[in-house]
Write a structure and sequence with these properties.
Elements lengths: L6 H13 L11 E14 L6 E14 L2 E6 L3 E5 L5 E3 L8 H12 L1 E5 L5 E6 L2 H8 L4 H8 L20 E8 L3 E12 L3 E10 L4 E9 L5 E10 L11 E9 L13 H15 L2 H4 L11 H7 L7 H9 L2 E5 L7 E7 L13 E10 L12 E2 L11 E5 L7 E2 L14 E20 L10 E4 L3 E5 L9 E8 L8 E7 L13 H4 L3 E7 L5 E20 L26 E2 H5 L6 E2 L5 E5 L5 H7 L1 E6 L9 E3 L1 H7 L6 E5 L8 E17 L6 E5 L2 E4 L4 H9 L4 E3 L5 E2 L13 E3 L6 E17 L7
Helix pairs in contact: 1-4, 2-3
């Protein structure tokens, strides 16, 4: 039985499956194993991609005296071909003959044979029988495979043994459909392990290729590559405008980090433009520093991920890791992973930490690997480290491992735990010294550039390891640390901007660190932190029955609510938080600002209703809390905004409406009252209290705390045993709190002063 859907997307999959073999370089290493994340986009030169393809591809390179063999497999792919046409490897179903053949072909892979000079001799299926089986369902695969050896980029880049920065390598190649392609590769950076090449090529038919590759010198294999192929009108069938093919490939084995997957040309352009504005600003020169941007040193260290998490937090993270098997998923049960990294309060970002994923293991109850399953680690998982919660399933790009396509459902029988072997990074303080204004720290330290209200360090090649981070703590005349603005940036930002983001290796080289203060700097404390990695193993326990009433696994917390007063507050006190109405600077909005200690409570529990003498409706009502301000980065007002044009020239007034009283209700579970500890995170609700509790939950004011006073996360409605008579929380409950909001409401009318402006 064949399955006909996804046939067109499957044709595009081959371009990404086969593309990587073109990155093979000088095959000097006798044996090389790696896995590559590859993203490929096809679309108009002036617009968004029409087709986006992604894949994770294990690669093996084997060399002997006669040459080399490069084998590239695909364990995961995801495709969006537009017009609702999507496909991914998870949807391949072994019960359908064509899907099973596709999975077998992807799993066996493509083999490229190279001679001793690195030239391509042949490209073909690693398993000819798998190719023949697939061709019976999709005959076009033979033609695609036959043409791949002549495709753009599918060629080795043989590196000479002697290289120098600025050296240019040139070559020509005839490519069907593109004519003669003339290559120029300039050595942009070089060390003993790798070389960075700036790539340019043009063809007689008008096609052009730009980008870069960072190659290993021992094997010629890429660490990172970003290439853009621009095609003129008529070269892409069915398209009448210039098109671009953009490709990114990153080594899982050698890449410093996987952050390159989060950048594209538009992001890079916006980042450059933002930095150019900053560079020209009075703040950068130290002429003016907004007081609300000044921070202490600890704040900057946390932002840079230098301040590591305490061991108690690591223990909490490890203890709450679970996986679940979604039996309703098709074509096979799907693995979901869950955990909690951090708890975010209003006005804060999650704490960052550094991670490197090494291996993934699926284990049975005896701690032995499940038979006949190869789990390929996916380092994009490392990008979750700056988030609040870990919540992934196999369909997600950042899922930490990939299983073979079209895996049979019974292969996961007996799965008891999932182990991720990784390294956790932290910066350790290695050196600190005080430097008087205008002085230098010495030949083994970065160069310092001084001004009255700013200091900048420039990292030198001799100034410690490339993984060291140097920071500055500015001091006043008494030796007291000064609040400041810290601006770390790379020297590459001062150079002419390339169209695409540069390699990570370039972005990390020659770092600079500038601190700006609002008062004179008498001296600095120069600190050097060294990055150190510690091995760790994260065990995901089976939580499949957790939401069905099973035993709690770990403890999860929740952020503190914004605008919840600690003591009773009257409605009149809330009304006093409303300030004078103003027009915004453009005259399009009427702002209803809130001030004082109760502004958060007023934003949460009060309303602002527009009034008009003509009875005209008012549109565009917008409420903003302090948390909204933080998320948007706009340092403006807290309160409401009304569309000014709806009033015309009529007087404008707003009625502020607040509850008559807000008061907290607190009960420890060891005391008799509304709540009773039922164990396993469950809390019973007395019948007389259920109406108040239901109202508090609707208003999102009810919370539970553990014995340490931290708020516990609540299980969602629909979980087993959760209803009007009982709740469940993610940990042992000590205290329940909620707010009683009393009606009727109180109000206050606020007129807009005559054309008052902010």
């Amino acid at each position: 039985m064949d399955r006909t859907r996804f046939r067109r997307p499957a044709g595009h999959v081959f371009s990404i499956v086969l593309a990587l073999s073109g990155f093979a370089g000088n095959a000097a290493a006798a044996s090389y194993d790696d896995a590559y994340f590859v993203r490929q986009e096809i679309g108009p030169a002036s617009g968004q991609a029409l087709i986006t393809q992604q894949a994770l591809m294990p690669v093996t390179l084997r060399s002997d005296g006669n040459g080399s063999r490069l084998r590239a497999r695909t364990v995961w792919f995801k495709l969006d071909a537009g017009y609702g046409q999507r496909g991914d490897s998870y949807k391949l179903d072994a019960d359908y003959a064509d899907d099973a053949a596709m999975a077998a072909f992807l799993g066996s892979g493509i083999e490229t044979r190279l001679d001793r000079s690195g030239r391509v001799v042949s490209v073909g299926a690693a398993d000819p029988q798998a190719l023949e089986a697939l061709a019976r369902h999709r005959p076009q695969v033979r033609e695609a495979l036959a043409r791949i050896g002549d495709a753009v980029g599918v060629r080795p880049f043989a590196l000479p043994e002697k290289l120098s920065v600025g050296q240019r390598l040139r070559e020509t190649q005839k490519v069907p459909g593109l004519g003669e392609l003339a290559w120029t590769m300039r050595v942009a950076a070089l060390d003993a392990q790798q070389v960075e090449l700036e790539m340019q090529a043009s063809s007689s038919e008008g096609a052009a290729l730009t980008g870069y590759q960072v190659l290993r010198r021992d094997s010629g294999m890429p660490v990172e590559a970003r290439l853009t192929l621009s095609l003129p009108d008529g070269l892409v069938p069915g398209q009448s405008e210039p098109m671009q093919l953009r490709m990114l490939a990153i080594s899982q084995r050698h890449a410093v980090a996987m952050t390159a997957t989060q950048w594209d040309a538009a992001d890079w352009k916006a980042y450059r433009e933002h930095f150019e504005v900053l560079l020209a600003s009075p703040e950068f020169r130290g002429e003016a520093v907004p007081a609300d941007e000044l921070r202490d040193l600890d704040s900057h260290l946390k932002q840079m991920a230098i301040a590591g998490l305490p061991e108690a937090e690591w223990k909490r993270i490890r203890g709450g890791l679970i996986f679940r098997i979604d039996e309703t998923s098709h074509p096979r049960p799907r693995i979901d992973l869950s955990g909690q990294y951090d708890v975010i309060a209003a006005g804060q970002w999650p704490r960052r930490f550094l991670m490197r994923l090494k291996n993934a293991r699926l284990l049975d109850a005896n701690g032995e690997p499940l038979p006949d399953i190869e789990a390929i680690p996916n380092r994009l998982f490392e990008l979750t480290a700056g988030q609040e919660n870990l919540d992934l399933d196999e369909r997600d790009e950042q899922f930490p491992f990939r299983l073979p396509p079209a895996l049979q459902a019974e292969a996961l029988d007996g799965l008891a735990t999932i182990a991720l072997d990784l390294e956790l990074g932290g910066h350790q303080l290695q050196e600190q010294k005080v430097i008087a204004r205008g002085q230098q720290a010495g030949p083994s330290s970065p160069t310092l550039e001084w001004s009255e209200r700013w200091v900048e360090l420039k990292h030198a090649a001799s100034a410690g390891s490339e993984q060291d981070i140097w920071v500055i703590a500015p001091l006043d005349a008494q030796g007291t640390p000064i609040r400041h603005v810290a601006i770390p940036y790379g020297e590459h930002l001062l150079q002419p901007a390339p169209e695409n983001p540069p390699p990570l290796s370039s972005r990390y080289s020659n770092p600079r660190y500038r601190v700006i203060t609002a008062e004179p700097i008498a001296a600095i404390e120069l600190r050097r932190y060294t990055l150190q990695w510690q091995p760790d193993t994260w065990i995901f326990a089976n939580g499949s029955d957790l939401f069905a009433g099973g035993a709690l696994i770990g403890v999860r917390h929740a952020s503190e609510p914004v605008g919840a007063p600690a003591a009773a507050v009257t409605g009149q006190a809330l009304l006093e938080a409303f300030d004078t109405l103003v027009d915004d600077q453009a005259g399009y909005k009427v702002l209803v600002p809130l001030r004082g200690n109760l502004q958060d409570a007023a934003a949460r529990f009060c309303q602002a209703r527009p009034l008009s003498s003509t009875g005209s409706p008012v549109y565009g009502v917008e409420r903003r809390s302090r948390n909204d301000l933080f998320r948007s980065g706009d340092p403006g007002w807290v309160g409401w905004a009304l569309d000014r044009s709806a009033f015309g020239d009529e007087p404008v007034a707003v009625r502020a409406i607040c509850p008559q009283r807000i008061g907290p209700v607190v009960q420890r579970l060891e005391q008799a009252g509304c709540f009773q500890d039922l164990g396993n995170g469950y809390v019973g609700i007395a019948a007389a209290c259920r109406a108040d509790v239901a109202k508090a939950r609707k208003q999102e004011t009810l919370l539970a705390r553990d014995a340490g006073g931290r708020r516990l996360a609540e299980f969602p409605d629909g979980s087993e045993g959760v209803g009007e008579d009982r709740l469940r929380f993610w940990g042992p409950v000590d205290t329940i709190e909620y707010l009683r909001v009393d009606e009727p409401a109180v109000s206050r009318d606020l007129p807009l002063p005559a054309r008052g402006r902010r």
